[in-house]
Design a protein that fits this description.
Number of domains: 2
Oligomer: single chain
Structural class: alpha/beta
Number of helices: 11
Distance between the termini: 57 Å
CATH class of the largest domain: Alpha Beta
Length: 312
Amino acid sequence: MEEYLNSVQVIKETDKKINIEKPTKKTVLFCLNGFQNSDVHDAVDMMDYFSSSFKEEFSVCEVVPVSLFIPADKKTHYHKLFEKKIAAAIVDYAARGYDIVLMGYSFSCALACKMEKKYRKFIKKLILVAPVYDTVINGMIPHYINYAWKFHKLCKRYGSRAANAIGRKTTKGLFGLLISIFSSILLNRHYFRKVTTDTLLIRGDDDLLCNEHSIKKISHILKGNHVLYRYPNMTHGILKSLKQNGIVYEDILHFSFGTPFLLQKKTLNVEKNKTSKVKYDEDGERIPTFMEIFSEIDPNADEETIQEQEGI
């Protein structure tokens, strides 16, 4: 791990409007799961790491994994139940006087954005890890259908041993779960543009599901203060391993609670550009400037003519 960390250079945007400091009141980091291929929640490793490394000094802080569904229970594989699960947790902790930091992972980022709008009074920060926005151009649909079909064949051939091999009680209900996940993305992704809370975006550079198109679109349509952290050589499973991806855990915990950094890594801080004149349409697509359009129409036009037209 030491050798790996020494070779990593995480690229982080900085924004002075986003305050990172140790909480003075009770604060909980709710971690929503992505599409889990085991019965163990994606954020359990991070919760354990927080407890072993920081809990004593940050006694008013908690890391709480929220399971949106139970992989082995088909009755929980319904997108409306996902929302009820996180809503119940937010209402419970808010009633007990907690500030809330909400983290979505993969497909659940869109749902986290909806919850940010609905419970903005209680949610102080938002973290979007490997957010999935597209379902077509990133190949998500064929990828997951292929995934489900492979496990269907394995289950048919090996029975319960196939489920046990990946840490699940059963592989039944996988297709229905995937449909609910797609529905959750498609029904909730418009809430990305309604976010106003300070937000941390996280992406691994080798992530194919949270592709470059998605992360740029999301970054442009978020209305509140937000920064983007990029991690080289990391994929969509960026929360899966403390041994390999512990630096991601530390960045999440630091953004949430102001915890110190224990792991060594190289970091390139880049000032977030707030003066960009680039404009985007309602779908987050970049609108070309007049100069670009004019240049396409007449590539031989002189610079003076272009500048005159730009001012119209």
